[in-house]
Amino acid sequence: MGINSESEIAANLQIGPTSLGMVRIYVAGDGVDLPLDFDPDEAEEIAEELRIAAQAARKQGGTGKKGKR
């Protein structure tokens, strides 16, 4: 599966600070518990990548709604 592959898999996403000063992205779904910890600098780099990807998606006509354009 890649970036452009659609999927019917559902998961919950939580993002927040840990007690150890890290930023955790926590993904939980059917049979998946995936905690991903990043130092604050890495988290800011990820945030910037998300912003850039959102801008690119808007330029391609993305609506944010699956299957609609």
- Radius of gyration equals 14 Å
Low-confidence stretches: none
Class based on secondary structure composition and strand pairing: alpha+beta
Summarize the amount of helix as a percent range: 25-40%
Which strand order does the major sheet show? Answer: 1-2-3
DSSP E strands, number: 3
Shape assignment: flat
Can you offer a commentary on this structure?
The protein has one helix at 40-59; strands at residues 11-17, 23-29, 32-38. The chain is of the alpha+beta class and 69 residues long. The chain has one domain. The chain has a three-stranded antiparallel sheet. A hairpin with a 5-residue loop joins strand 1 (11-17) and strand 2. The longest helix has 20 residues, at 40-59.
Short description:
The protein is α+β, with helices and mostly antiparallel strands and 69 residues long. The chain is built from one helix and three strands, in the order βββα.
Overview features:
three-stranded antiparallel beta sheet; 3 strands; 1 helix; alpha+beta; 29% helix; flat; 69 residues
List the helices and strands and how they pair.
Layout: E1 11-17, E2 23-29, E3 32-38, H1 40-59
Antiparallel strand pairs: 1-2, 2-3
